[in-house]
Specification:
The protein has 486 residues and is α+β, with helices and mostly antiparallel strands. The protein contains 15 helices and 17 strands. It folds into four domains: 95 residues, no CATH class; 99 residues, no CATH class; 97 residues, no CATH class; 128 residues, 2-Layer Sandwich (GMP Synthetase, Chain A, domain 3), CATH 3.30.300. It starts with a helix and ends with a helix.
């Protein structure tokens, strides 16, 4: 008798743990309790729920002549939906029966509104790690309802991604949805894609992770307040490198900032300066990268030729005036001697490669010329420019040059053109031998590449650019003039 009673109690306990509130999600639970339960027999209730996504469907029938007919009707409703889960009968004629393990048990979310103080506390914690547009995303998350999860990815370079879900039927579904959203966000970030995996940063209104969980050894340091004497000493040391102006103000802000931080300075041969700083970064490496990029960006904006140099790291001035006493990279000098004329007929004559008195087709002349010049290439034209090779294609001669000390960032196309185009044009258009070939229809193309092998720009010259007519155009003009005279 005691064993039977014990089994009965265990059975009641088992079914209590899988009660409708722990199995059915919001809409189906409402239908079961408020609609189905009050209907007349014979009746049946069928339910299905995907374990991974939490998506569910239910169906029911009532007022039938038999349980079998009610089951059939309810099952037909449930199976009419495309769902990756099996439809299971959980009630017939008001008798609810769900065995443990048939469905993952769910709990109702705590939608109690956060107090102002608690919300501020969570946002203060989040500011340590959550960056960029992910922070307002997290702020909105705190106002979301239902089962909700916030996923986040952050690496030591400061690259980040995030994703969230809310109003999910189950916590399992919320977790999967948030991770998927974060991974989708990572894949959209291209070069800014973080190397670290997406992880569950918050569940409900509870923060689960800290900096070390993301492989970051140090949190943002507390702002360091320098004493007046220490501040002036560091500022005076920096002044030995920084001239008056915006960069000096940037250094003042820098010394009042927070670690991790870095400061780069660049100065061209005329004494002009630009700088870049960063502060409050997650790591020293990130601070250095950001400050350098800011400095190089300012160089590009000012069209300056100089190198960004580290002069301060965290609160230490690590540079000195001597690093700017070394002569910077020499800018390309505008002089007619900078470019040698592209094609020297007298040189070709000396090498007996082309006999100009013979009527040789233009493309053959250019082919022989290119082959002759390539025998002596590559060669330095001057201290900044190296002629790599020459190519001929139909009526075009292409000269490939490398700026041996500059990249496209150091020497943008607009800057190179302003320095060299006019002088190059004068040399091409004033050389008698070159002009003779331009009149025959030749085009001259100069291709400039940086030391990093990335193309910078191309100059193209032909008879029209030099303000003359080709032989064919000249002939057409003469014929036209004769016709007009007649």
């Amino acid at each position: 008798m005691h064993k039977i009673l014990l089994l009965l109690l265990m059975s009641l306990s088992l079914y209590a743990s899988v009660s409708p509130e722990n199995v059915l999600t919001k809409n189906c639970l409402k239908s079961y309790l408020n609609t189905y339960k009050s209907q007349k027999n014979h009746k049946a209730f069928v339910y299905a729920r995907e374990s991974e996504t939490g998506k569910d469907r239910c169906g029911w029938g009532y007022g039938y002549e038999s349980v079998e007919e009610a089951n059939k009707k309810a099952m037909k409703q449930c199976t009419g939906f495309q769902l990756n889960a099996e439809c299971i009968i959980i009630d017939t004629d008001g008798d609810y029966f769900v065995k443990e393990g048939a469905f993952s048990l769910i709990t109702q979310p705590d939608d109690t509104p956060l107090s102002k103080e608690m919300k501020e506390k969570l946002l203060t914690e989040a500011k340590v790690l959550i960056r960029g547009n992910c922070f307002p995303f997290f702020k909105d998350y705190l106002n979301d309802k239902g089962h909700k999860v916030f996923a986040y990815s952050l690496d030591s370079d400061g690259k980040y991604a995030c994703g969230k879900t809310y109003s999910n039927s189950t916590l399992v579904a919320a977790k999967r949805g948030a991770i998927k959203g974060c991974n989708d966000n990572k894949n959209k970030r291209g070069k800014k894609k973080p190397k670290s995996p997406c992880r569950l940063y918050a569940k409900g209104n509870q923060v689960l992770l800290n900096a070390k969980d993301f492989g970051i050894s140090e949190l943002l340091k507390v702002d360091k307040v320098l004493g007046n004497d220490e501040y002036l000493a560091k500022l005076n040391k920096a002044k030995t490198m920084i001239k008056k102006g915006a960069c000096l103000f940037q250094m003042k802000y820098y010394l009042r900032g927070s670690a991790h931080q870095a400061y780069f300075l660049a100065q061209d041969k005329e004494g002009k300066q630009v700088c870049g700083r960063s502060e409050g970064e997650l790591s020293e490496n990130e601070a250095l990268n950001k400050a350098l990029k800011a400095c190089e960006k300012n160089l590009s904006k000012k069209n300056m030729i100089a190198t960004c140099k580290l002069i301060a790291k965290d609160f230490n001035i690590v540079g000195n005036a001597s690093i700017f006493e070394v002569k910077e990279k020499t800018e390309v000098v505008k002089t007619t001697k900078h470019f040698q004329p592209s094609i020297k007929m007298k040189d070709l004559k000396n090498k007996n490669t082309v006999e100009l008195h013979k009527p040789l087709p233009l493309k053959d002349t250019l082919k022989i010329t290119a082959a002759t010049l390539n025998k002596t290439l590559p060669t330095m034209v001057d201290s900044e420019l190296r002629l790599e090779r020459v190519e001929s294609k139909e009526s075009t001669m292409k000269f490939y040059y490398t700026l041996v000390h500059f990249t496209r960032v150091d020497m943008p196309a607009s800057r190179l053109k302003s320095l060299m185009y006019e002088d190059t044009k004068i040399q091409v258009c004033s050389d008698n031998d070159t002009m003779m070939l331009l009149k025959k229809g030749m085009k001259v193309e100069y291709v400039y590449t940086g030391k990093d092998k990335i193309d910078i720009t191309t100059f193209l010259f032909d008879a029209k650019v030099c303000g003359v007519l080709t032989n064919i155009e000249h002939l057409k003009e003469n014929i036209f003039n004769l016709i007009k005279k007649k």
